[in-house]
Amino acid sequence: MALNPYDLYDVRSLLTEEERAVQDTVARFTDERVLPIIGECFEQGRFPTELIPEIASLGLLGSSLPEQYGCAGLNAVSYGLICQELERGDSGIRSFVSVQSSLCMYPIYAYGTEEQRQRWLPGMARGEIIGCFGLTEPHGGSDPANMKTHARRDGGDWVLNGAKMWITNGNLADIAIVWAQTDDGIQGFVVEKGMPGFAAQEIKHKMSLRASVTSALYFDNVRVPEANRLPNVKGLKGPLGCLTQARYGITWGPIGSAIACLDEALRYSKERILFGRPVAATQAAQLKLADMARRITAAQLISLQLGRLKDAGRMQPTQVSLAKWNNVRMAIDIARESRDLLGGAGITVEHCAIRHALNLESVITYEGTETVHQLVVGRELTGINAF
Predict the structure, then answer these.
(1) What is the pTM of this model?
(2) Can you give the pLDDT at residue 265?
(3) So which domain of life are we looking at (predicted)?
(4) Which one from 337, 361, 367, 380 is the annotated catalytic residue?
């Protein structure tokens, strides 16, 4: 029997029946609803908000959180498969779900009160309340400890001042999970759209993640009630804990991008005739295609084992860093090679390779740059912090 070119080691056979059902459901959604429109959305610089109700109805928002909050209660591997199939469509779609689930719903669940969970999580699971995550600042990037945004106590409220940058979902969001310096360390606040002094400005002229909303957030004496402070965490471990959740999903997402690019390159190279034979009949093309399959296989096995560790409660941040580093680098290299195999056709949005290649330029940067994750692994190996 011929092997599946996108799953040479039959990783799917290692999934449970429920995990396979989740993957199949999201794959159908991507095939039927995302792929027909996403090239045009990318070209227009538009996030397809019309898909939000369907994404929510499939249980993809906060999918790993308990059912008591209107969520699906799925395991970590299922969440990873959701990310993989969504990013097979586009990184922007997966980013929307990642931010809503891992960066907004998760901190409310993990660091908030039961009242806060009941207030926001069910509506977020239904897609009625959209969130964004405010950590990165204009000058900060990879150094979140150098945070300038601050909040001071004023009676029963907090007064928030500062700015955040490169915020996915910013202009879509009804609430923002904002991290700020206080006299008692870094704390998280739920800032609501319409609070006086809070403004979001969409970032235009992007060449990457064009089918995604990216914004800057500004806080000018924004008065936030104590009821909107996340009380159960202080310090950088709060936002970094959220990033670990999001990075886990990102280790899976680029596998989808890479599979989409390999699929396109395979089909095109079999159809394209040069010098009297298909491009796929040349050694140069087969070497490239074989290398793509090798790297995808390695990434699949890494993410599956990472998911099993997460479900067992044994996942460590360094393991996430290694997987994010390996898998995003794998995907961006495959996207570029696929674009090359397509020749001139590869530069148009009628094909997916250039879109994925451009998107992955953001994915390899956000949630920790490749260099940061390399240094995290280096620190683990040596015991020496080289940051």
Answers:
(1) 0.96
(2) 97
(3) Bacteria
(4) 367
